[in-house]
Amino acid sequence: MLRRRPPRLAGMPGFALVWSGQILSVLASSATSFALTIWAYQEYGSATALGVVSTSFILPFLILSPIAGVMVDRYNRKLMMMVSDLVAVLATGGIIYFHVSGGLRMPHLYVAAAITGLGHTFQWPAYSAAISVMIPKEQYHRANGMMSLVESGPGVFAPLLAGALYPMVGLTGILVLDVSTFLAAIAALLLVDIPQPVKTVEGQAGKGNFLREAVYGFRYIFERKSLLHLLLFFLALNFVIGLSYNVMDPFILERTGNSSVQLGYVRSAAAIGSVVGGLLVSLWGGFKRRMKSILLGEALTGTVALLLFGLGRSVAFWIAVAGIGAMFGPFVNGASQAIWQAKVAPDVQGRVFSARRMIAYAIGPITPVFAGVLADYVTEPAMVSPTGLSRVFGWLVGTSAGSGMALQFVLSGLVYVAIVVCVVLFVPAIRYLEDRLPDHDQLVRVDGAPGGAD
Q1: Would you put residue 363 in left (φ > 0), alpha (ψ -120 to 50) or beta?
Q2: pTM above 0.90, yes or no
Q3: Taking a C-beta distance cutoff of 8 angstroms, is the pair 249, 37 a contact?
Q4: How many Å apart are CA 275 and CA 329, to the nearest integer?
Q5: CATH code of residue 70
Q6: d(CA 19, CA 9)
Q7: pLDDT per residue over 115-151, tens digit each?
């Protein structure tokens, strides 16, 4: 007699299980990242080298995003999510091998970051699109608040976890833990039902060969000017914030005498702030007008997380400002994600979300390296010299080691806020986006039913 397979979890309980597996996996990965960042800076002492690691992670995403979007829409989304975790296992396993053999070098971290970025290329559109078919749109903002905890929550405990485990199990033990949590995340996916999206007229319009489908995500966005303008807004902000955030770790290390402990305090404070923000979004849901959450949150990010952070002179101040400034990110990201999930038909979200992130992160490979080079060769030398920039800004950020990177934070904050103000005053296509575009459940399925019908 055949035994019936037990039913898989669906809806919010299924999403909660997947979320639990992801938060454990990201916790271990964050501990690994923290340990490797300290190792790399102590070995090489270069902000530029750390920037190249970030660039190596982003490049595969930018190059392969259109392909990933097509595969997410064409094939089983749960399978795509599993594949992305398996690719990350491969990258971490490579680091384990070279570390155990005693030959770990920066180029190995570049390659591992590129492989991990490849997996992330498939992971993000698959997870984002899965939310749209697992739960009703009224819960999108709540679910996105929970997903923001996956990104930020582990940062609270990861430095402490890495610091506690390193003396006992070493870097190898932390890496092995990372691999085991990836496998746990895959096991959670096996227990959950993630339905494929219903076919809509918009989805059928994007059908064709692989190239046509890959381009469709970009065409979809460019045909909807409000979405395009919103993306360009985030593109500009990502560039500006990248000029400072990509040198935050060396900035704190320079200001604290290369103290990894105090760097851990600051990073943990920022992670705690993100967790608090994510919890507030999960419980409250943000403003009813999601664009209000985006514009207000971005203005506060530029003021607190950039401008005030750069003006700080003590670890206690950086801890407080990092915690408060990080609270605004989940409001912005949750609101933005909810807008896209509500406005874009589920059966094209893989392609559209991949194109969306590719546009928003188009300057990603340049910014980390540019920020590092700017610090190493321009702002830092200029601010410790008795001439040039130090005469103009020395009273504001000091003239000791780290002052150049502090100046990058201050100037980035001023430009960041200026961009937000310009959008509020002069770009109605972004301000009134929610009124100009219909939600996807108001669209029509190929069988003639409303897009949101079962």
Answers
A1: alpha
A2: no
A3: yes
A4: 10
A5: 1.20.1250.20
A6: 13
A7: 877 877 787 788 777 877 888 777 777 777 787 777 7
